[in-house]
Amino acid sequence: MKSPRWFVVAGRLCLLICLASALVRAQEPVPPPPQEPPPEAPASAKPQKQKYSHANDFLIIGTIFDPRGYAFPGVELRIRRSAERKYRWDSYTNSRGEFAVRVPQGSDYEMVIHVKGFTDQTRAIDAKTGVSEARIVFHMESAGGEKK
User: Fold this and answer.
1) Could you tell me the fold of the domain covering 54-139?
2) Distance CA 80, CA 107 (A)
3) pLDDT digits (tens, 9 = 90+) for 29-59
4) What are the domain boundaries of the chain?
5) What is the spatial distance between Cα 17 and Cα 25, in angstroms, rounded to a whole number?
6) What φ, ψ does residue 128 adopt, rounded to 5°?
7) Helix (H, G, I), strand (E, B), or coil: what is residue 23?
8) pTM
9) Is 136 exposed, middle or buried (0-12, 13-18, 19+ CB in 10 A)?
10) 98-139: per-residue pLDDT in tens?
């Protein structure tokens, strides 16, 4: 059984039109979904906590030397507010004996330098002056008092 030629041509034409309209619809931008208003927080909810910015921090920079005047790597430093007992910041010197620690501005701080075999050194730091950094140099002394 042979189908008439015009019937085959009409079927192919119909199929081509459907495919073309589907391609055109696929290339149209999808409209964004409607945005819902944010849910309102109850009046008793806490306000959002603001992110902490380091823009107002006080920077403590320094170098630690051994008794012979060489850089002293691996020295432990601990920092606390003068009014507190617990040390809140700690760090170590790098391979060149240097350190840098950020603390919040507006308080008095106490820094303790500790190395086994050497006497601990304490330094008071005033971070209320409006200056944004303090540069400190330490010269360690052996625990026995003699030079190594």
Assistant:
1) Immunoglobulin-like (2.60.40)
2) 10
3) 666 777 776 666 666 666 677 776 767 789 9
4) 54-139
5) 12
6) -105, 0
7) helix
8) 0.60
9) middle
10) 999 999 988 899 999 999 999 999 999 998 877 888 899 999
